[in-house]
UniProtKB/TrEMBL annotation:
EC code(s) of this entry: 3.2.1.21
Annotated protein name in UniProt: Beta-glucosidase
Entry similarity comment: Belongs to the glycosyl hydrolase 1 family.
Residue numbers binding substrate: 20, 121, 165, 289, 389, 396-397
Keyword line: Carbohydrate metabolism, Cellulose degradation, Glycosidase, Hydrolase, Polysaccharide degradation
Organism, scientific name: Kutzneria albida DSM 43870
Superkingdom of origin: Bacteria
Catalysed transformations (reactions): Hydrolysis of terminal, non-reducing beta-D-glucosyl residues with release of beta-D-glucose
Gene3D superfamilies: Glycosidases
Active-site positions on this chain: 166, 349
Record-level GO cellular component terms: cytosol
Amino acid sequence: PALPSFPDGFLWGVSTSAYQVEGAVSEGGRGRSTWDTFCATPDRVYSGHTGEVACDHYHRYPEDIALMSQLGVDAYRFSIAWPRIQPEGTGPANAEGLGFYDRLVDALCEAGIAPAATLYHWDTPQPVEDAGGWLSRDTAKHFADYAALVGERLADRVAMWIPLNEPMVTTVYGYGIGQYAPGQFLLLDSVPTAHHQNLAHGLAVQALRAAGARQIGTANNHGPIWSATDSAADRAAADYASDLLNWLFADPVLAGSYPEQLHPLLPTGFAEDLPTIAAPLDLYGVNYYEPTQVSAPSEGNPLPFDLGAVEGYPMTTNGSPVVPDGFRQFLLELRDRHGSALPPVYITENGCSYDGVDDQQRIEFLDGHLRALHAAMQQGVDVRGYFVWSLLDNFEWSKGYQPRFGLVDVDYTTQCRTPKSSFHWYRALIGGTR
Ligand code: GCO
């Protein structure tokens, strides 16, 4: 059956991020980032892939905007590379870097596509990392200076601001288990990086407001955490994992508090920062991919939970279970937990990896997730827009170019773009709801 209809004015978009699509890592005065370093380190990234060229979006953005016009999206969510704006991570703005995003934003506005800018999608300037990265409180202050530089230049045209993308991933994958840059293995000692990112968010919100920015939010990676069984031990483990993966990032921003069982892991004096972190937002971004299943920790596990596989669902080529109802479940959980403190929600990412240009499975995935989203809205969650991850196949972090998340296929030898079946499907969907 046809998809249920979404409200008038519901915003339809697509997302990308700088390191995953731009390439041109040595152009325009860009400094090095932690991802350049990580990719240059043997055995970190699948088959030695790097973001050096990626989709060459830095040069081909006019062609990519033409694709978005054809697709009919209302908004494009991209990220700004901090090392293009401040090659050393501190100091004055690099005019060429600001100039690139200025042209990108102008071209979007001309095409009638609202620019939605993320300020940080994991590409920390290497000198900032060398000085401690997110383990250092100073990084939050540097980040606010960077936000001010970008805000002053672009606040008049950017329609939606996301200071940090998925700080959970940086904390857990970057500093906790070392799967992503900067590749540290600190386990729960990574939690201070969560607080420093949350503080960076709060300080950046202040800087953006001072620069006249409208519509400021955040984008957190979320999903329900399922307990493997009903036993008290498994449920306690799931509760802990949900605090670590979901609420460590949502609660301080929305309620000015941290889950109590995580207090011992936070930097001393964290409570004084909470009012800054909890400044009111205009929107709250949810990135949803999949649920997580956990059980009580097995012997020798230094973490208070074991991660298990979610079984009995179809899988994407990336090994993610396809669970649309997890999307609805999480949105209701978020609404129930935060009530009227929750601003309007935007789905800032949702998508899947499948191979091939006739990607019927992606259509099924998106169709299922939009039905689940609609159901959550019927049940009272105020959702105002939805961004597919991603416009283009792109550099999928430590998995390199192997997973393909795009509505548009990219041939990495020729840079030829080919809209997939899902592109035509999304276009018809958007056209039909306008
Ligand atoms: C994310 C990531 C994206 C990934 C996507 C698919 O914000 O989680 O933003 O960079 O490519 O999630 O795994």
